[in-house]
Amino acid sequence: MHWTASPLSSALGAVATQVSTGGSAKASATPARPKRPLIPAVLLKFVMALSGFVLVAYLVVHMIGNLQIFWGPTAINGYAEWLRTLLEPVLGWEGFVWVVRIALLASVIGHIWAATLLALRAKRARPVKYAAGNKVKGSYTTRTMRWGGVIVLLFVIYHILDLTVGVANPVGAHLKPYENITAGFAPDRWYVTLFYVIALLAIWFHLRHGLWSAIQTLGWNSNRREKTLKAIATVFSTVLIVGFLIVPISATFGWI
Amino acid sequence: MKVNLRVWRQKDPVDKGRMVDYTVEDASEDMSFLELIDVLNEKLILSGEEPVAFDHDCREGICGMCSMVIDGQPHGPERSTTTCQLHMRKFNDGDTITVEPFRAGAFPVIKDLVVDRGAFDKIIQAGGYISANTGSAPEAHSTPVPKAAAERSFSAAACIGCGACVAACPNGSASLFLGAKLTHLGEMPQGQPERWERVVNMVETHDDAGFGGCTNTGACATACPKEIPLDVISQLNHDYLKATVGGRKK
């Protein structure tokens, strides 16, 4: 590795790095290298970060909207109606809601598409695994991003069937979120509440790493800011997830 | 002290390879890990067997040649240390130690523990340098460099290109290496003229070699014997986005 500038020469102000000519003389003995991927990994990460931010922004609005259930049936049912009247002269009844839904669907597809390509590329990048296992590990949150993401996706599908479409909900009435929520998380359906709690914790894990990782991907991280950014990501995810958790838990314990 | 070794043996690049068990009875705790392999090899040679091939050069922790994964960790269990500076006192008498080559598709095994890290040379050839007319050295104060930039460039320049970041990365990505080189040159005024084409060309060559994408797990920075900080990857992303999406590269 003779092309590396030694620390001493850098200290003296010489920054030129030399290239050794005979660096890979043995390259001919190696098997064929994979072809250039169509999209560089850095751009795939960029897609992941941006689509992730869209989804997180939605989650914030979703969480605040949910809290209206504590002001009674008129408040939250009225909120559901009001969302459909937004920009009605331009988009028509429910038009705004559909615009948001399409943006969300595009983000979810982009997020999963980029994650799948990166996961496949990672698999190809290490064809032979370590016999002793890879002992240098990131935190639990970083190691559960991929499968955790799959769990979150399955939850989102169930959640849409439960409280958007209504087929998995005992009431399932359109534009009656108060009735749907109180019936869906009724005390005798405690297992549904438990499932929501577990899924929300999975989202908490996903966000804790995801938020910071997105910041790093967009190039806004620095050594000085790293600890603060990680702390902000943790506090933000915790506040968001607690905000979501109190609704099903309150419904099950009859606090609404 | 006595140690049991499980060592990856592979005759040549096409051989399938396997783990082979050895015992070294007369190891000293003052030996470096490479000296332990030397002792093993002397025994193997005397008994007419093929010695274990491994990369090494300076044996003082600065060249980046030694490349082994010891018990699942590149350069072994001691932090901020290359294999040559890892000493047997870090292990216990009777331990079984697994020794494998750096594992990455872009680092094919040549023999036993020796891998071809020529992919790193190709990345450097794609832009890890500055083009300057050489001649007599200019007056050092003619180009002022802010203290913070000099410090950051210096700590990134500490990268010895050993490849431990790739070996540790769950995605087999060389982003820490890339980021270190880009930060090293990008923080200096001399690195500016080629900054935007440098990042695009180096990222392309990185992907061409078959390295994976970064997921910011931080395993690379943990494994790095030179403690290259993780934020050089953020710098790499920043420069790449500015060069491509931001249209800096013409």
TrEMBL record, chain A:
<keyword id="KW-0408">Iron</keyword>
<dbReference type="InterPro" id="IPR034804">
    <property type="entry name" value="SQR/QFR_C/D"/>
</dbReference>
<dbReference type="GO" id="GO:0046872">
    <property type="term" value="F:metal ion binding"/>
</dbReference>
<feature type="transmembrane region" description="Helical">
    <location>
        <begin position="42"/>
        <end position="64"/>
    </location>
</feature>
<feature type="transmembrane region" description="Helical">
    <location>
        <begin position="189"/>
        <end position="207"/>
    </location>
</feature>
<dbReference type="Pfam" id="PF01127">
    <property type="entry name" value="Sdh_cyt"/>
</dbReference>
<keyword id="KW-0472">Membrane</keyword>
<feature type="transmembrane region" description="Helical">
    <location>
        <begin position="228"/>
        <end position="251"/>
    </location>
</feature>
<keyword id="KW-1133">Transmembrane helix</keyword>
<dbReference type="GO" id="GO:0016020">
    <property type="term" value="C:membrane"/>
</dbReference>
<feature type="transmembrane region" description="Helical">
    <location>
        <begin position="147"/>
        <end position="169"/>
    </location>
</feature>
<feature type="transmembrane region" description="Helical">
    <location>
        <begin position="96"/>
        <end position="120"/>
    </location>
</feature>
<keyword id="KW-0349">Heme</keyword>
<keyword id="KW-0812">Transmembrane</keyword>
<dbReference type="InterPro" id="IPR011138">
    <property type="entry name" value="Cytochrome_b-558"/>
</dbReference>
<dbReference type="InterPro" id="IPR000701">
    <property type="entry name" value="SuccDH_FuR_B_TM-su"/>
</dbReference>
<keyword id="KW-0479">Metal-binding</keyword>
<protein>
    <submittedName>
        <fullName>Succinate dehydrogenase / fumarate reductase cytochrome b subunit</fullName>
    </submittedName>
</protein>
Automatic annotation (TrEMBL), chain B:
<keyword id="KW-0003">3Fe-4S</keyword>
<keyword id="KW-0411">Iron-sulfur</keyword>
<dbReference type="Pfam" id="PF13183">
    <property type="entry name" value="Fer4_8"/>
</dbReference>
<keyword id="KW-0408">Iron</keyword>
<dbReference type="InterPro" id="IPR017896">
    <property type="entry name" value="4Fe4S_Fe-S-bd"/>
</dbReference>
<comment type="similarity">
    <text>Belongs to the succinate dehydrogenase/fumarate reductase iron-sulfur protein family.</text>
</comment>
<dbReference type="GO" id="GO:0008177">
    <property type="term" value="F:succinate dehydrogenase (quinone) activity"/>
</dbReference>
<dbReference type="InterPro" id="IPR036010">
    <property type="entry name" value="2Fe-2S_ferredoxin-like_sf"/>
</dbReference>
<dbReference type="InterPro" id="IPR017900">
    <property type="entry name" value="4Fe4S_Fe_S_CS"/>
</dbReference>
<dbReference type="GO" id="GO:0006099">
    <property type="term" value="P:tricarboxylic acid cycle"/>
</dbReference>
<dbReference type="GO" id="GO:0009055">
    <property type="term" value="F:electron transfer activity"/>
</dbReference>
<dbReference type="InterPro" id="IPR004489">
    <property type="entry name" value="Succ_DH/fum_Rdtase_Fe-S"/>
</dbReference>
<dbReference type="InterPro" id="IPR009051">
    <property type="entry name" value="Helical_ferredxn"/>
</dbReference>
<feature type="domain" description="4Fe-4S ferredoxin-type">
    <location>
        <begin position="150"/>
        <end position="179"/>
    </location>
</feature>
<keyword id="KW-0001">2Fe-2S</keyword>
<dbReference type="InterPro" id="IPR001041">
    <property type="entry name" value="2Fe-2S_ferredoxin-type"/>
</dbReference>
<feature type="domain" description="2Fe-2S ferredoxin-type">
    <location>
        <begin position="1"/>
        <end position="103"/>
    </location>
</feature>
<dbReference type="GO" id="GO:0046872">
    <property type="term" value="F:metal ion binding"/>
</dbReference>
<keyword id="KW-0560">Oxidoreductase</keyword>
<keyword id="KW-0816">Tricarboxylic acid cycle</keyword>
<dbReference type="GO" id="GO:0051537">
    <property type="term" value="F:2 iron, 2 sulfur cluster binding"/>
</dbReference>
<dbReference type="InterPro" id="IPR025192">
    <property type="entry name" value="Succ_DH/fum_Rdtase_N"/>
</dbReference>
